[in-house]
Recover the amino acids of this structure.
């Protein structure tokens, strides 16, 4: 049985797909959840989960810790046929290059990664392909931010230029909120911010398969961003997906067309993700590219009867499927975040729950606890079913009261 090594911030869904594709799976991820061992033959995690403790965060950057884990696992288990990545490396081309030195990193080259994350280049490509793009300005000082905010109507979006997941993305709605942000934020030249007009609409993504010269939009997805019910109403944090996006055929066609055109121009390889906001008038606004396998992988597989690891490998070898699969129903994928410091119970007996932490471990406010997958015949059935499971999880959490 050939071996693959999967690495990323949350790699369990990718490990699941690789195992179902028939590979011996080695995995390196950040969290080290219980059910990673269901799909990985051997794994290393950055965090060491233990009962009665919140895992200590690494003193080195996450990407560095992940690359070190890959090197260690290859030394222990031997070479692998492929290395596959999920989130965590988009803005770290040096780490991407290092992974490619450790094995056959299957996907985009380091240079293609850099081009795909070049904001100005991809915005221009999106405009040429017929998509709208939000007005934005890059800033590194408080003065520049205040100047930039005068260019757009309130509310505005402020986010790091480098990073993913939306955890440090803020919506500023008033002059007071802008002043407070400026007072609290530590500005540095090495960590530029993007000030961007806020597009009101539905967050969406497109999962693309690329063979270098050709591309296929495999799935059009709704993104769940900044859900107040999950304690993320003040940020634009990523909270999950609903697969597929429930929208008009015209919007679906436009999202697919723009993504395929940009992908082919960039010569993207394998599975890649394109982020959009579909404005209330139906206009797609292009946001960015995630040039690797996306967090949507499991939800897409659950409703489409495909294996994305197999498709990713085929695409990197020049083979694309003749058409996109037709989803059977909808899958809601919801990330559950802790609303306060709490002790996490054993979640293994709750249907639909994955990315399961060690029972008795401690989560602080804002920490991700687990993921919920729920399938329904309609979008509403899928999302409402997931919400009921989320309520059950919150009811099982045990808040820890401070003794101060």
């Amino acid at each position: 049985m050939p071996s693959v090594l999967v690495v990323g911030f949350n790699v369990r869904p990718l490990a699941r797909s690789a195992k179902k594709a028939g590979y011996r799976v080695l995995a390196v991820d950040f969290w080290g959840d219980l059910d990673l061992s269901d799909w990985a033959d051997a794994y290393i995690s950055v965090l060491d989960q233990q009962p009665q403790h919140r895992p200590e965060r690494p003193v080195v950057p996450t990407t560095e810790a992940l690359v070190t884990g890959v090197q260690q696992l290859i030394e222990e288990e031997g070479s692998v046929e492929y290395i596959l990545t999920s989130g965590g490396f988009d803005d770290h081309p040096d780490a991407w290059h290092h992974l490619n030195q450790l094995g056959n990193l299957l996907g985009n080259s380091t240079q293609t990664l850099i081009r795909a994350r070049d904001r100005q280049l991809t915005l221009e490509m999106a405009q040429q392909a017929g998509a709208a793009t939000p007005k934005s300005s890059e800033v590194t000082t408080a003065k520049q931010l205040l100047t930039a905010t005068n260019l757009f109507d309130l509310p505005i979006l402020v986010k790091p230029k480098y990073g993913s997941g939306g955890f440090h993305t803020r919506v500023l709605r008033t002059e007071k909120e802008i002043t407070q942000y400026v007072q609290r934020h530590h500005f540095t030249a090495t960590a530029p911010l993007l000030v961007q007009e806020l597009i009101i609409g539905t967050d969406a993504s497109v999962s693309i398969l690329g063979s270098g010269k050709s591309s296929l939009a495999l799935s059009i997805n709704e993104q769940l961003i900044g859900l107040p019910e999950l304690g993320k109403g003040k940020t634009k944090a990523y909270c999950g997906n609903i697969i597929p996006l429930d929208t008009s055929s015209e919007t679906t066609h436009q999202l697919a067309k723009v993504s395929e055109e940009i992908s082919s121009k960039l010569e993207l390889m394998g599975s890649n993700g394109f982020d959009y906001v579909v404005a209330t008038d139906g206009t797609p606004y292009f946001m960015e590219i995630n040039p690797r396998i996306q967090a949507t992988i499991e939800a897409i597989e659950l409703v489409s009867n495909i294996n994305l690891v197999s498709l990713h490998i085929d695409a990197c070898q020049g083979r694309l499927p003749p058409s996109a699969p037709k989803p059977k129903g909808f899958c809601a994928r919801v990330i559950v975040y802790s609303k306060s410091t709490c002790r996490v119970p054993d979640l293994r007996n709750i249907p639909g729950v994955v990315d399961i932490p060690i029972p008795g471990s401690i989560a602080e406010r804002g920490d991700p606890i687990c993921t919920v997958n729920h399938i329904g015949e309609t979008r509403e059935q899928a999302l409402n079913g997931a919400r009921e499971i989320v309520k059950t999880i919150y009811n099982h959490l045990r808040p820890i009261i401070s003794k101060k």
Summary: The chain has a mean pLDDT of 93. The domain at 201-399 is CATH 3.30.470.20 (D-amino Acid Aminotransferase; Chain A, domain 1). Residues 249-266 form the longest helix (18 residues).
